[in-house]
Design brief:
Elements: E1 30-32, H1 38-52, E2 61-68, H2 73-84, E3 89-95, H3 106-117, H4 146-153, E4 158-163, E5 167-170, H5 192-212, H6 220-239, E6 254-257, E7 265-268
Amino acid sequence: MSGGATDPVLGNYATPGTALNSVVAGGYTIYISTLSDATNLGSLKSMVEFVSGPTEQRGAIGVFGYTDKIGTLANVETLCGTTLNDGRMTGAYVASPTDNIAKTEPFKVAAAYAAMLASQSDPAVPYDGLVVSSVATPSVADRFTFTQKDSLLHSGVTPIAVVPGEDMAIVRAVSTYTTNSSGIPDPTLLDINTIRTLDYVRTQVRTRLTNVFQRSKLNARTISLIRAEVLDVLYVLQAAQIVQNVAQYESGVIVEQDLSDVTRVDVNIPSNIVSGLHVIALVFNLILGM
């Protein structure tokens, strides 16, 4: 502690002794950062991608909070949609009051937001409208307009805004992913529900297969049984409204023995997940006369 001039450092998850290294093997699904600078969030992003990848397969997301004056929305939009641009990172933004007296600290925003993300057992249900407690309500002058909220959402930022009753609630929970590797706008992973639903499907399939085939021989019969179990899980998830149109994509479920490893089976699983309803657009036709 020397003047408090710089933020703490989360460090590299692979480096012993760092904050992230102490939790990388924990198996958590939500990691909350008390820090919201680009460097530390970049470190969290790397760890979340690692634990969620094809080797570890422990799907997780990184959560952070951000507060700033409403006149500088571009700061958080750049941080989220450009600097981070990742489907597993999600940041809740609260416009801090002009006088800065009633400002809720970023770490409190992050904790309150993450609590709402953890409150639902169904990953496909949107978080729209969930009240975020312990976040100060800004004055009218510091509240988002609809246009500002829309801009934030499409820049990978989750706005926390005032709702009737003067509560603060999630407008729509989005990830920081806005563009693909070619720099083209890409909405596929914008909603944080998308990656969380895919993680849920992967967990359900892996759990079933490891339970049923933990000590099995690898032959044509086993391959056929694996495909049957995968389809059964998908139909169960369809009944729970997690995925849809399983029959339409059933032929895409392919189970094959790996060409380079005779002890391995490769499984391709089309996952048509159920999306959340976020927008209801109305068209009114004017009728005059009798």
